[in-house]
Sequence to fold (179 residues):
Amino acid sequence: MGGSTSKQDKPNMRSVKKETSTERSRGRRHMRRETDVREKEMFDKLREAESEWVKETKKLREKVKRLRKKVEEKEEAKTTTTEEREYWKWVVKEMCVEKAVRDEAIEKWNQLYLAIKNELDHLIIHTTSFFSGKAMMQRQLEGKDETEKVKTVEKLRNEVRVKEDTIETLKEKIALMDR
Fold:
């Protein structure tokens, strides 16, 4: 055994350099792998974030569509409500017009009824008074003696003749007016 160990203890420079360069390259490879892994993780995170962003964008677009649809429905409901209000205003207006026409017709019929009623009352009064007048005369005559009865009858006949003459002249005047 005996030999010199100095060569073994001191590595030569060339081998040190090689080891360090290989170690460096190994370290670089290792660092490069770590960097690649980190980059890959970052890209994966970015892809996930991007996919989440795309999903959120889709959700938001759907929400916007739903909200627009709701707004359109509300606007349509407002216009429908406005149209219905206008329709009912028109119906009420027409009902008021019809009521006015109906009231006017009722008023005319009432006037006609009153005119006919007055005419009939007038005829009834004159007709019954004429007949009741005869009855009254007969009662008066019953209580008187014959000479008085004759005088009263002649007096009444004269009155009737005068009234008949008046009626005749009035009829002639009416006939002249009609021409």
